[in-house]
Design brief:
194 residues; alpha/beta; Rossmann fold; three-stranded parallel sheet; two-stranded parallel ribbon; 8 helices; 5 strands; 12% strand; globular
């Protein structure tokens, strides 16, 4: 969902954006090619790590922005995508398991930074947050307690985000639209977007 929001919003702003889906399930690629209206997104799918390593720099040079969607678990393709990234986003939903996985992913990105001898910025994005609930407040507090680098913007649990998968349309009003605008502003501020 996060890759679709970023990619679809950039496309709506007229940015030359490409979406590269390295997740074997291909959900982001299907969304970009079959659901998203207008055909304004250049969509690619490649889950093989070796071919992905060859494709990433080519696509990054061809487009103003390249968003790479990876599987939600550690694999070679994800490592290749992280090693070539200008910014890594780690979504975390309310729950202890997501926090543990976010910690592991941030540590993995840190290790790849040391291995590649370059800084790979990483930010956790709180996702599916129900404002005013104790579990959401707890997750947001834990991001600070665990010293996880995170964006100020949190993505709420809203129907508008679920609808993206079916209609392709980006949130156009209300809190979701404001969250998307804040998310893009923060990503630009962090140097991850043109």
């Amino acid at each position: 969902m996060l890759a679709a929001v970023v990619t679809g919003s950039l496309a709506a702003q007229g940015v030359d954006v490409a979406l590269l889906d390295s997740d074997p399930n291909g959900g982001a690629h299907r969304w970009a090619t079959q659901t998203h209206p207008g055909g304004t997104i250049h969509a690619y799918a490649e889950a093989d790590a070796e071919r992905l390593a060859e494709l990433l720099p080519t696509l990054a040079a061809q487009h103003a922005a390249l968003v790479v969607d990876t599987a939600g678990f550690g694999n070679q393709a994800a490592a290749v995508a992280i090693a070539g990234a200008d910014l890594v986003l780690v979504p975390v939903s309310p729950g202890e398991g997501d926090l543990v996985e976010a910690q592991r992913t941030v540590a993995f990105v840190s290790g790849l930074s040391r291995s590649t001898r370059r800084t790979i910025p990483v930010k956790v994005v709180a996702n599916r947050i129900r404002k005013g609930t104790s579990i959401s407040r707890h997750v947001l507090a834990e991001l600070d307690t665990l010293e996880l680098p995170h964006l100020r913007t949190a993505i709420s649990e809203a129907v508008a985000y679920a609808e993206i998968g079916f209609t392709g349309a980006m949130p156009a009003e209300g809190a979701p639209a404001a969250e998307v605008a804040a998310l893009l502003a923060e990503l630009r501020e962090a140097g991850g977007l043109p």
